Sequence to fold (435 residues):
Amino acid sequence: MFESLTDRLSQVFQRLRGQGRLSPAEVESGLREIRQALLAADVHYQVVRDFLSRVEERATGEKVAESLTPAQQLLGIVRQEMAAVMGEAAKLRLAGRPAVVVLVGPAGSGKTTTAGKLARYLARKGRKPLLVCADPYRPAAAEQLATLAARVGVAFAQAGADPVAGVAAAVDQARRDLLDVLIVDTPGAPPGTPPPGFLGEMVARVKPGDVLLVLDAMVGQEAVGMAAAFAPLGVTGVVLTKLDGDARGGAALSLPSRLGRPVAFVGVGEKPEDLEAFYPERMADRILGLGDLAGLAEKLEEAGGERLAATAARAREGAFTLDDFLAQLEAMVRAGPLDQLLSRIPGLGKMAADPELEVELKRTRAIIQSMTVEERRHPHIIGASRKRRIVRGSGTTVQEVNQLLSQYEQARRLVHELSRRRVPPGRGGFPKMTR
Fold:
């Protein structure tokens, strides 16, 4: 996500950190490099100009050049202003009983997939969604949405040939079935053409509390022009899809201020769980290479659930088995691709691109899963014959099994020390995996 922009901005601040105190000329040079990086990332020129104007004004007013840590102070200003450019964190209104959420946007932007993801997101928040297909034009649109509804475990309805009347009927159905949110998938329009005429009539009739504009993040600042065609429908927020494949960041940084509407959600993958609420401060941190530990914690908590909480409780009591180790690995696997998880940790963005890390995680998982329950709970019983059986079951080598057991033992000792609130000298965290 935003790899190109993050790399360029990281280089700018790395160079500035090496300067000690910054002269006004060095600050100006740094801002000029930031400007070039943002324009290369396809950020709208007006957004870049206004952003840098505010950064320069604050940098001058706060006397960055005289600061003892000028690069860090300038980074802080850039972070705050970048978050401001992306607006405030947006929440769905979900007004009405049932609440109606209509998804609109250009053809191919990912509305149907987003509808399924949003249904899952709201269901996990305690809502009871009804997915409604109001696309009478695209072949198999209803079938695709019905499949997604079944996959995420929510109800489905088809509006039929008359989508306006069909959506109104779906509202009545939701009331009868005690469903509290309608998520309406609508047809798209090719870029440069107006949306289907019936959308305005449908919005006027069902009066949705939320009209979400779904846009492909990879189109960059062109998203601003695409959004203008749908603005008359009363757009309340934006969903940016395919953000995981966007190396530039132009849409995320341009849309909120140019459209005057906040980004509510971002799509970061193809799976139903790959929809995240958009937080400007967190996104600014990720763009600047500062990570997103809050987002990482949420991902792991959602993936691990009660089992991970129980594992943490046992660890605090000083108990840490290979079962607990496996529970953490399983949570990481469910939380998403390893590269996405590591990209949220400050300083590990480049490591996330290392394919060997994913291979090593799978290897470790295979070794533990090839053990019996007794072996996971009491690894000290694993002798030569047991290792040979584990090797055959996991497709690894005795050396790799020994390496895992050694790493586990280090982790177990550290957990024991941490439970007694005595961290051994030189141990700042769990041992790293070695290849």
About this structure: The chain has 18 helices and eight strands. Confidence is low (pLDDT under 50) at residues 421-435.
